[in-house]
Design goal:
Layout: H1 3-6, H2 14-40, E1 42-45, E2 54-57, H3 64-73, H4 83-92, H5 99-102, H6 109-126, H7 139-159, H8 166-170, H9 177-185, H10 189-194, H11 197-204, H12 218-225, H13 238-245, H14 249-269, H15 276-310, E3 314-319, E4 322-327, E5 336-339, E6 348-360, H16 362-365, E7 371-372, E8 379-380, E9 385-397, H17 403-410, H18 420-458, H19 466-486, H20 490-508, E10 511-513, H21 516-521, E11 527-530, E12 542-548, E13 551-554, H22 558-567, H23 570-582, E14 587-590, E15 596-599, H24 602-618, E16 625-633, E17 638-644, E18 650-657, H25 658-664, E19 665-669, E20 675-677, H26 680-695, E21 698-708, E22 722-731, H27 738-747, E23 751-755, H28 760-770, E24 778-781, H29 782-786, H30 790-796, E25 800-804, H31 808-820, E26 826-830, H32 836-841, E27 844-848, H33 854-859, E28 862-864, H34 869-909, H35 914-932, H36 948-964, H37 976-994, H38 1018-1045, H39 1053-1075, H40 1092-1111, H41 1113-1116, H42 1123-1144
Parallel strand pairs: 11-23, 11-26, 19-22, 23-25, 24-25, 26-27, 27-28
Antiparallel strand pairs: 1-2, 3-4, 3-5, 5-9, 6-7, 6-8, 6-9, 10-28, 12-13, 12-22, 14-15, 16-17, 17-18, 18-21, 19-20, 21-22
Helix pairs in contact: 2-35, 3-18, 13-15, 14-15, 14-19, 15-20, 15-37, 18-19, 18-20, 18-34, 19-34, 19-37, 20-34, 20-37, 22-24, 23-24, 26-28, 34-37, 34-38, 35-36, 37-39, 37-40, 38-39, 38-42, 39-40, 39-42
GO molecular function: ATP binding; ATP hydrolysis activity; calmodulin binding; metal ion binding; P-type calcium transporter activity
Transmembrane segments: 249-268, 274-294, 431-453, 473-502, 894-920, 1019-1041, 1053-1071, 1092-1117, 1123-1143
Membrane topology: Multi-pass membrane protein
């Protein structure tokens, strides 16, 4: 008997026999190609002979097709993406199961457009004000705008009269809240004068400039004038997330199929047996929906908590005569607010007094030019920012009575920009979803064609029964379930889950992440440009040394202060104290317990505290009248004050960077307090003193004065002719742990660069102590850096480790060149208002939470709450953890996708030997064709012959067919209920387990992932393909030979083997989940038992699997297994750990950039790195 006779085919003519073999082989080759495409993908290349394209299977090292597709359609910059880029990837997402859930955490571009329209309408209204800014718009537009506004205002004035109600009078106030609010919001100078200017308003709201309001009146004021909050949309409830999760189109279709199955089952099999299949699917869907909704709801609570942290802004007010720090939400009308550079104005108010106050109203008016505030122009609006100067303001309107509050309440939530990882994984989900849809469609078509053929050959197509409808519904449910499992809808949402977890942990570690993308981008940072003061140092400053009248003294302790008192004259001491007390931005305030506290910047506090101690030994009152104040400016690097002396003369005091002040001086104070000319030798000696202070890591400041007879109020302070009084050496110790943190950065491939305004010697001393300035690095001053050409900068920038005496523009230039010339991912720290451009330009802007201004914080992506450099390293650690955790989850989920897709497709569509046929015919496609075809010939008597090797192959076909001919065609080993459970394991539970892994020290021993590197690495493809092949072989063997291999007999043998397949498949995923914890290291158990969340999810998965197998068989189509088969299931799953270890020993070709191997180090032979 020939092989084709044993196959059950009666072929007598030789030509037909040849055609039969060719047909079987071509069918096998096509199936092999389809399977290989699903696992590895296929490219089509041109045939060198000019014929049709030839398929080229992609192997481990040829996955560029996926990355190219992702880069073309799903590439998004980490910061400030354009609307075009945001819309491009949205349009590329063509197949989504649940749009409400998939796009829940992405920006709503339509809402943003509406918000921008509302902002523009507000900007038009602000042109009605008497002085919107120094910039004047074109006259016709301005006249049209003001005419429209005046007409509307006049109309409103006729219809509205303000009345002081009985409630207002009983509370002790004498002005209507709406009238008070309109005076400031409309800049109504006429109404302000009618009420007696600012003084009259303060009396009507029972507030005084020096004592503020009484704390006992807070509730009354909030009841009459409102609270400082604007109306916000209520938080989404759990049931809204349940509704979102239930909008999954595939789950809806499955629900319909389940209902139809239940109805048909009841009609054909009766109650309750007929309902089991449908009811099982329904219960599985409800479980998936609830678990998904609870996970999403918990994420929303985490984001809500973080959002509330972002809104925590504190300001200084005067209440009951003492200065206090309160939340902006506790602000009430009548409060006296202290404003300084970088503050955001928390409410509408009136200017009381201050110095050089410039307000940036661009957030309200759209105008970039600042507005100068004075007694003549006293109106200050909420939401604006202090660009320069300082002042006291009396609050006149809060919350919804401010223009800013009304705007914020009307703006709909536009959402935050999606992160690059979210977009990239949306692309992965889209590509795999299309493949899954194709396979599902083919599955349904093949099943239906087979069903119709069999029906036509048996009973005919004219006769239909209820069981036929049930069969078709089951086929359709199988196809839909393939889509459920094949489309990794949870990939983009896993990023959100991981980011929410990381942001919560970082909040506990004193880092507030304002933008989601910063958390993942920080893991790719190549350079950190950090400030010195307060970041690398403790920011607890004290005056350590002083030079005065050519005497240098250490001033730590009371004894040294007495010694200083004894070596300088009273006149000199008087000048010193006068310069300290008059030229300072710090302030001595009285607390509630009558104790005194010094408020201000650390530098100003240190000098003022030194002056207070020195004054205690002197006891002379040096109070003068301030005429003009120039606050400290990071560009000029000095501050100045003009005071009026009791004798009628005026005196400038200037304090700032030592080199700048010394350059302004041509005289100095001698031991008797006289101003004497400064010789070159003395100037050189002074510079040597400055250098010696700086070399001891002391921050140096100089104090000088100049007598003037007259002055111009509109001109700046003079820059020459000053008399040098003293040099301060201020000690600011390096923070504990900074040196180790810098060392960790260096081992992680992150370069730390110090950018400071301090003296270069001070900066170098601190940098060496921290380990920043190494032998191959250089220190440079800002003026030298600015003078370099672009070509010189290209050679210089890689060597720079310290930049001293720098301006904010220097920092911005450095960041721009690092990103533009060298394509580096740059993180920048900043605290001042002028740092905002650099924070905005950098990939990750890090603002200081203590020393930082509100303007800097608003421009930043992360707020370092404790101003500590070590916290910045924690952000980098968690950033890397997020990136690597998502890679782990993607590796795990794609493995499940491939295996579930292939197993169900093959088992449902292949007649006879199923997967083994495919594996066997793949051998035929590469082996039998070249052996058989060339050797076919016809003898004289027209007898068909095969060569010996081909005959062996034919007999092998016969053996395989005889072995697996028991397989029933069209059966799927994994039912819809089982696949839904697998989908939940790999989606929600898998994300919780793998995407929330905490960082470890090894992450900071890998180079950062640079721009443009593939997200799905070759290491991941190796693991995915290897684990997929192992699982396919195991499950295919069980599917087509399990009964013989395990000697399973009896009427329920088919149910037992299907249950075993399902159980083995689940345990393969459980152990592969453990395997995915490490993508390259063999020891996957390190740190696992300390991760209680991971252990809990694995335990829950195993426990629920036991329940499904042993107790829910009626609904899940399973039967209880004996302990031997349980061991088989667990054993087959655990072998994946061994397979994983073997795979990790297979070398993978490194990427194009060998210095940056996707965040992974080669395997080490040492036991610590296994």
């Amino acid at each position: 008997m020939l092989p084709w006779d044993r196959l059950g085919v009666n072929i007598r003519r030789p030509r037909l026999r040849v055609l039969f073999i060719l047909g079987r082989i071509s069918r096998a080759a096509s199936l092999y190609l389809l399977l290989h495409t699903s696992v590895c993908g296929v490219d089509w290349e041109e045939n060198p002979n000019g014929h049709s394209p030839l398929p080229r299977a992609r192997g481990l090292g040829d996955m560029e097709w996926l990355e190219k597709n992702l880069q073309d359609n799903f590439d998004l910059p980490p910061k400030h993406p354009s609307d075009e880029a945001l819309r491009r990837w949205r349009s590329a997402v063509s197949f989504v199961k649940n749009r409400r859930r998939r796009f829940r955490m992405v920006a709503d571009l339509d809402s943003r457009s509406q918000n921008e329209t509302k902002r523009r309408s507000l900007q038009v209204r602000t042109y009605c004000l008497p002085y919107p800014s120094f910039h004047v718009p074109p006259l016709p537009a301005l006249l049209a705008q003001r005419l429209t506004c005046k007409l509307s205002d006049a109309e409103g004035a006729k219809n509205k009269e303000y009345q002081v109600t009985e409630d207002i009078r009983n509370a002790g106030f004498s002005i209507n809240p709406d009238e008070l609010a309109s005076i400031t919001s409309k800049h109504d100078v006429k109404a302000l004068r009618m009420h007696g200017e600012v003084d009259g308003i303060s009396k009507k709201i029972r507030s005084t400039f020096d004592r503020g309001i009484s704390v006992s009146d807070l509730e009354t004021r909030q009841g009459i004038y409102g609270v400082n909050r604007y109306t916000e949309k209520p938080a989404r409830s759990l049931w809204m997330f349940v509704w979102d999760a239930s909008q999954d189109m595939t789950l809806i279709i499955l629900m319909v199929c389940a209902l139809i199955s239940a109805v048909v089952g009841l009609a054909s099999e009766g109650f309750p047996k007929g309902m089991y299949d449908g009811l099982g699917i329904i219960l599985s869907i409800l479980l998936v929906v609830m678990v998904t909704a609870i996970s999403d709801y918990r994420q929303s609570l985490q984001f809500k908590e973080l959002d509330n942290e972002k809104k925590k802004i504190f300001i200084h007010v005067t209440r009951d005569g003492s200065r206090q720090k309160i939340s902006i939400y506790d602000l009430v009308v009548g409060d006296i607010v202290h404003l300084s550079i970088g503050d955001q104005v928390p409410a509408d108010g009136l200017y009381i007094h201050g110095y050089s106050l410039l307000i940036d109203e661009s957030s309200l008016t759209g105008e970039s030019d600042p507005v100068y505030i004075s007694q003549d122009k006293p109106f200050i609006l909420a939401g604006t920012k202090v660009q320069d100067g300082s002042a006291k303001m009396m609050v006149t309107a809060v919350g919804m009575r401010t223009e800013w509050g009304r705007l914020m309440s009307t703006l709909s939530e536009g959402g935050e920009d999606e992160t690059p990882l979210q977009v990239k994984l949306n692309g992965v989900a889209t590509i795999i979803g299309k493949i899954g849809l194709l396979f599902a469609t083919l599955t349904f078509v093949v099943l239906m064609v087979r069903f119709l053929i069999e029906k036509g050959l048996t009973v005919g197509l004219s006769k239909w029964y209820s069981t036929d409808a049930l069969t078709i519904v089951n086929y359709f449910a199988t196809a839909v379930t393939i889509i459920v499992v094949a489309v990794p809808e949870g990939l983009p949402l896993a990023v959100t889950l991981s980011l929410a977890f990381a942001m919560k942990k970082l909040m506990n570690d004193k880092a507030l992440v304002r933008h989601l993308s910063a958390c993942e981008t920080m893991g790719s940072a190549v350079t950190i440009c950090t400030d010195k003061t307060g970041t690398l140092t403790t920011n607890h400053m004290v005056v350590d040394k002083i030079w005065i009248s050519e005497v240098s003294k250490s001033v730590i302790g009371n004894n040294t202060l007495q010694d200083l008192n004894s070596v300088i004259s009273s006149t000199t001491l008087g000048l010193l104290l006068q310069g300290i007390f008059e030229n300072t931005s710090a302030e001595v305030v009285k607390e509630k317990d009558d104790t005194q506290t010094v408020l201000g910047t650390p530098t100003e506090r240190a000098i003022l505290e030194f002056g207070l101690k020195l004054q205690g030994h002197n006891g002379e009152d040096m109070t003068c009248t301030k005429v003009k104040v120039e606050p400290f400016n990071s560009v000029k690097k000095k501050m100045a004050v003009l005071v009026s002396l009791p004798n009628g003369t005026h005196r400038w005091f200037s304090k700032g960077a030592s080199e700048i002040i010394v350059q302004m001086c041509d005289r100095m104070v001698d031991a008797d307090g006289n101003s004497v000319p400064l010789s070159e030798a003395q100037r050189k000696n002074i510079l040597d003193i400055i250098h010696s202070f700086a070399s001891d890591a002391l921050r140096t400041l100089c104090l000088a004065y100049k007598e003037v007879d007259d002055f111009d109020e509109n001109s700046d302070s003079q820059t020459d002719g000053f008399t040098l009084i003293s040099i301060f050496g201020i000690k600011d110790p390096v923070r504990p742990g900074v040196k180790d943190a810098v060392k960790a950065c260096m081992s992680a491939g992150i370069i730390v660069r110090m950018v400071t305004g301090d003296n270069i010697n001070t900066a170098k001393a601190i940098a060496k102590e921290c380990g920043i300035l190494t032998d191959d690095g250089i220190a440079i001053e800002g003026p030298d850096f600015r003078s370099k050409s672009p070509e010189e900068m290209r050679d210089l920038i890689p060597k720079i480790r310290v930049m001293a005496r720098s301006l904010p523009l220097d920092k911005h230039t450095l960041v721009t060149n690092l990103r533009g010339m060298f394509h580096e991912v740059v993180a920048v720290t900043g605290d001042g208002t002028n740092d905002a451009p650099a924070l905005h330009e950098a990939d990750i802007g890090l603002a200081m939470g203590i020393a930082g201004t509100e303007v800097a914080k608003e421009s930043a992506d992360v707020i370092v709450l404790d101003d500590n450099f070590t916290t910045i390293i924690n952000v980098a650690r968690w950033g890397r953890a997020v990136y690597i955790n998502i890679q782990k989850f993607v590796q795990f989920q794609l493995t499940v996708n491939i295996v579930a897709l292939v197993i169900n497709f093959v088992s449902a569509c292949i007649t006879g030997a199923g997967v083994i046929y495919i594996l066997f015919y793949s051998i035929c496609a590469s082996m039998v064709v070249p052996l058989v075809i060339p050797d076919i010939h016809y003898s004289v008597n027209n007898t068909f012959f095969l060569n010996e090797r081909a005959r062996d192959c034919a007999y092998f076909i016969d053996i395989v067919n005889n072995t697996f001919e028991f397989c029933s065609p069209g059966s799927a080993p994994l039912t819809a209920v089982q696949l839904l459970w697998v989908n939940m394991i790999m989606d929600t539970l898998g994300a919780l387990a793998l995407a929330t892994e905490p960082p470890n020290d090894d992450m900071m021993k890998r180079p950062p992932v640079r721009r443009g590197e593939n997200f799905i690495t070759k290491v991941m493809w190796r693991n995915i393909i290897g684990q997929s092949l192992y699982q396919l072989v195991v499950l295919g063997t069980l599917m087509f030979g399990g009964e013989q291999l395990l000697n399973i007999k009896g009427a329920d043998s088919k149910s037992v083997i299907n249950t075993l397949i399902f159980n083995s498949f689940v345990f393969c995923q459980v152990f592969n989940e453990i395997n995915s914890r490490e993508m390259q290291k063999i020891n996957v158990f390190r740190g696992m038992f300390s991760n209680w969340l991971f252990i809990g999810i694995i335990a829950v998965t195993v426990a629920f699997q036991v329940v499904i197998i042993e107790f829910l068989g009626t609904f899940a189509s399973t039967v209880p297994l004996n302990w031997q088969l349980w061991l088989v299931s667990v054993g087959l799953g655990s072998i994946s750990l061994i397979v994983g270890a073997i795979l990790k020993c297979i070398p993978v070709k490194s990427d194009e950039n060998p210095s940056s191997p996707n965040g992974y180090l080669p395997l080490s032979s040492g036991p610590d790195n296994i």
